[in-house]
Amino acid sequence: MDTILTINNLTKKFGYLTAVKDLSFTINKGNVYGILGPNGSGKSTTLGIVLNVVNKTSGDFSWFDGNTTTHDALKKVGAIIERPNFYPYMSAYQNLKLVCKIKGVDFSKVDEKLELVGLLDRKDSKFQTYSLGMKQRLAIASALLNDPEILILDEPTNGLDPQGIHQIRTLIKQIASNGTTILLASHLLDEVEKVCSHVVVLRKGEKLYSGRVDEMISSHGFFELKAEKQSELIQVLEADANFSSVKTEGELITAFLNQPMDASVFNKLMFDKGITLSHLVKRKESLEEQFLKLTNNQ
Amino acid sequence: MLRLLEIEFHKLRYSKASKILIITYFVLLTCIALFASIKFDIGPIKFHLAELGIFNFPYVWHFNTFVAGLLKFFLLLVIVSMVSNEYSNKTIKQNLIDGLSKKEFILSKFYTVIAFSLISTVFVFIVSLILGLIYSSYKEPSIIFSDLEYLIAFFIKLVGFFSFGLFLGVLIKRSAFAVATMIVLFFVEFISYAIVSGYNRGTDVADNIYQFLPFKSLWNLIDEPGSRLSAVQAVAQQVGEDLAYDYAVHWYEIAIVLGWTALFIFLSYRLLKKRDL
C-alpha cells in the first residue's frame, strides 16, 4: 500500500505545555482517517506541524515516499485548518484564482470545484458576505483545486447548523468515494464513526489508539432484556459462562457478552429454560462509550 | 519571481484601501508640477517659484526626488497593511498551507517593495523630465542627463524605507501599531540626535554616529536641496553666511541603506520561520 504520510515520535512543546507527545502513525492511500480527541488534545497542532505552519520540537515526519520536501509535498495536498481563511474583500472566484496561482493550477479548475460544492451561482459575491457554511464549503473547494492526493480537514463541521453539517459530510463521503485519501480531525465521535474507516485517538497529545474504527469497538456487545420472571432470569444469566457481567436497572437487565452470540440463539436458550422474554435487544457499545472509556482510563 | 509578483499584485488589486492609497500617492507625485504654478503677485513683491530655477536641469533631479521622498508615507501604509492584513485575516497560514514557502512569502513582499520603488522612480523621472523641459533654462542633453544619481538614491531610499515597514509589519502584525512604532522610532532617533549634537556642538560626532541609524541614513541619501538654490545662496552671501554643503550622493550612504535593507528582509524571514502560526 502506498504511504502518504509517516509521523515518527513527533513532539511539540509550547513552553511548559507539551501539546503533542511522542506521536507516531502512518497514513496510507485510499482510506479515510480520523484524528479523534477532545479539545486541546493536540489534533490541530499535529496537523499544523505536518503542514509547515507550526515548528516541531523533536521527532520527524515525511510526506509520500520520504524524498519529497514538505514544500513540494504541499502542492499535492489540500488542507483547511480551523476556520476558513480567505481575503474578505475578494469574491469567491478571485480568492480561488489566487490559490490557483499559488499552487500552480489552471484557472479552469475554479468553476469545476465551485460547482462541486454548490457555490457556482454565488462565485462573484465577496467572501465577507458568505455564511459560515458557505465559507467552509468554499474552503473545501479551495483545498480540492489541485486534485490533491490527500485532503486534510480540521473540524470541518465546527459551528455549522445541522443542515450545514449534513452538506459537509455528504461532500466528504462523495470525495472519499472518488478515491481521495482523507484525514479528518474532529472531537465529534459520530462524525468519525460515520465517515472514517481508520482512527487515531489522542488525549493530551498522546496516542491512545490507532487502527480500524470497527476494531476499536472490540467487545462482543450486550443484551438488553426484560422478563416477568426477573429473578430467575438473573440466576440463569449469572450461571452462564457466556456472560461476563449482569446489571439490573429497574426492570431492565443488561447482560454483557464474553463471546459472540446471536440474539435468536439466546432467545431459544431462554425459552428452553422456561423463561419468556418480553424485551430483547442486542447492541454493541457505541464509539462514544469506547472513546470515553479510552480517554478516562488512562 | 514573476509568479510571486503576480500573486502579490492579485492580492493588492482587489483591495479598495490599497488602491486608493496608491492612486493618491501617484496623484500627489504629479502634483509636484503644481509647484510650477506657485505665483505671488502682491504689488512690488513678485514671486514665481518656477522662475527661481527649481526646475533647472540638473537641479530638478535633486529637488524633485527630495520632495517625492517626503510623500513615501502613503506607500508605506500600503506596504505595512499588505503584510499585517495577512496576519489579521490569517491568510498567511492558508498561503503557507496552499504551498507557498515562508521564503517565497517574504520574497513576494520584497519584490513588491522593489516594484513600487522602481515605478515611483520612473514616474518621478518622467515628471521631472517634463517639468525640466518646460521650465529649465538649460536644455542641452549633457546637462539634462547629469546628476542622475539622485534617482538611484531615491530608488534606494524607497526600498530601504519600505523594507523597514515590511519588517515592522511582520514583527507587530497590526498595521496601526506597526506605523505607530515607526513614528515612535523616528522621534527617538530624531530627539536623541538633537541631544547628542547639542552636547557636541561644533563637532561632527553626532553626524558620524547617526549616519549609521536607519532614519538618518535614509535622510542622508538625498540632502536637503533648498539651500542649493542660487537665489538662496545669493541671499546667504549677502548676510555673510557660507552655505557650502556637500550635496553629492556618496557610495557609503547607499551602502549603509542597503545594509539596513538586507538586515530588515533577513530578520523578517527569520521571524516568520521561527514563529508558530
UniProtKB/TrEMBL annotation, chain A:
GO terms for molecular function: ATP binding; ATP hydrolysis activity. InterPro entries: AAA+_ATPase (IPR003593), ABC_transporter-like_ATP-bd (IPR003439), ABC_transporter-like_CS (IPR017871), P-loop_NTPase (IPR027417). Belongs to the ABC transporter superfamily. It holds the Pfam family ABC_tran. This is ABC transporter ATP-binding protein. PANTHER family: ABC TRANSPORTER, ATP-BINDING PROTEIN (PTHR43335:SF2). Residues 5-229 form the ABC transporter domain. The keyword Transport applies. It comes from the Bacteria. Keywords: ATP-binding, Nucleotide-binding, Transport. Transmembrane segments: none annotated. It comes from Aquaticitalea lipolytica.
TrEMBL record, chain B:
Keywords: Membrane, Transmembrane, Transmembrane helix. The chain crosses the membrane at residues 20-40, 60-83, 110-138, 150-170, 177-196, 251-272. The keyword Cell membrane does not apply. GO terms for cellular component: plasma membrane. It comes from the Bacteria. Pfam families: ABC2_membrane_2. The keyword Transmembrane helix applies. GO terms for molecular function: ABC-type transporter activity. PANTHER family: INTEGRAL MEMBRANE PROTEIN-RELATED, MEMBRANE PROTEIN. This is ABC transporter permease. It comes from Aquaticitalea lipolytica.
